């Protein structure tokens, strides 16, 4: 079969992946293409790192659409203690304006002592998350500045699990019940024990990532097949299986604030860059063994996923290549489907 224009456009991106395995996929109108390298296939599971937060944002929007939470709710409304100072809301956590540092204080020190070269987050659990929150002063007043925070992303998932009537550690089960299950994402969950590709760091194999205390910030595994389905649903929320998820899929891509000095906007976790031909929404992620990117252009019905099983390198060239490939994709659909292995 002759490669479609979309498949041909993806091939340089696949070749830019430095891991032993890679999968890149795109949708453009009625055209779909998936290219795989090495042991990867459409359904192979990669660690997605901070792409996890986009699932956490969708879970937040799902609970909000049901009326179980409000974006302006104080986070401590669902915690066993009150936080001092000005209100820290769910929206602050979902837009990186909480004032929390990037990581909980003490986590890196503990990781260096116990597992920095193996699983640096493994010894940090839900109790540690709450203990760190109680003793962490905010860097700034909530809502006043944008400061990327894995701490905030992990806390958001913990709070949502409590808001839905469970314990903070029930995030993974709640995500499956409310999001990944209804959307038919059979390859997507937080389970490190299900089969997944082996990650690599500086050419060396890595153990599966463990993040018991910050699950909602970086522990989701997924495949090119599932992530492409998510992007297709984001491009066409009206095709989601129920009204609540249709609302949630639209809500996560609604701009919430302007990022100073950049012209960019923040939606619920998703970054939005205005362009003459329409907004480009994107997010990336990385772990000690994987790099992931996802982005979409609603105006042209275009979305792109890029996954490889090696850790990000300085300046993240694979992520930059994926972003450039998404920008470069045309908008004319061909209506063809293409899957290839190289």
From TrEMBL:
Limits of the Beta-lactamase-related domain: 7-313
One Pfam match: Beta-lactamase
Record-level Gene Ontology MF annotations: hydrolase activity
Stored InterPro entries: AmpC-like, Beta-lactam-related, Beta-lactam/transpept-like
Record's signal peptide: none
EC number: 3.1.1.103
Keywords in alphabetical order: Hydrolase
Domain of life: Bacteria
Keyword hit for Hydrolase: yes
Top-level class of the enzyme under EC nomenclature: hydrolase
PANTHER family listed in its UniProt record: D-ALANYL-D-ALANINE CARBOXYPEPTIDASE (PTHR46825:SF7), D-ALANYL-D-ALANINE-CARBOXYPEPTIDASE/ENDOPEPTIDASE AMPH (PTHR46825)
Protein's UniProt name: Serine hydrolase
Protein species of origin: Streptomyces glycanivorans
Lineage of producing organism: Bacteria, Bacillati, Actinomycetota, Actinomycetes, Kitasatosporales
């Amino acid at each position: 079969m002759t490669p479609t224009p979309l498949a041909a456009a993806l091939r340089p991106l696949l070749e830019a992946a430095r891991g032993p395995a890679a999968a890149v996929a795109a949708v453009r109108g009625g055209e779909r293409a998936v290219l795989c390298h090495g042991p990867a296939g459409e359904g192979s599971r990669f660690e997605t790192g901070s792409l996890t937060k986009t699932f956490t944002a969708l879970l937040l929007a799902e609970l909000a659409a049901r009326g179980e939470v409000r974006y302006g709710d104080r986070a401590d409304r669902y915690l066993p203690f009150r936080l001092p100072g000005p209100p820290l809301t769910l929206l602050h956590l979902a837009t990186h304006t909480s004032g929390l540092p990037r990581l909980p204080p003490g986590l890196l020190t503990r990781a260096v002592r116990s597992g920095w070269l193996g699983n640096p987050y493994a010894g940090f659990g839900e109790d540690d998350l709450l203990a760190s929150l109680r003793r962490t002063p905010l860097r700034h007043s909530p809502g006043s500045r944008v400061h990327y925070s894995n701490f905030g992303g992990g806390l958001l998932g913990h709070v949502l699990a409590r808001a839905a009537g469970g314990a903070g550690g029930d995030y993974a089960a709640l995500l499956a019940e409310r999001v990944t299950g209804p959307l038919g994402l059979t390859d997507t969950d937080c389970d490190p024990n299900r089969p997944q590709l082996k990650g690599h760091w500086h050419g060396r194999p890595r153990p599966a990532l463990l993040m018991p205390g910050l699950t909602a910030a970086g522990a989701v595994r997924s495949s090119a097949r599932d992530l492409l389905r998510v992007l297709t649903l984001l491009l066409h929320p009206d095709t989601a299986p129920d009204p609540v998820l249709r609302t949630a899929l639209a809500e996560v891509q609604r701009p919430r604030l302007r990022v100073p000095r950049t012209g960019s906007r923040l939606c619920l976790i998703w970054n939005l860059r205005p362009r003459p031909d329409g907004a480009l929404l994107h997010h990336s992620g990385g772990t000690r063994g994987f790099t992931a990117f996802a982005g979409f252009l609603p105006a042209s019905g275009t979305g792109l996923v890029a996954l490889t099983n090696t850790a990000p390198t300085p300046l993240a060239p694979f992520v930059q290549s994926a972003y450039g490939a998404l920008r470069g994709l045309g908008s004319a659909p061909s209506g063809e489907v293409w899957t290839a292995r190289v």
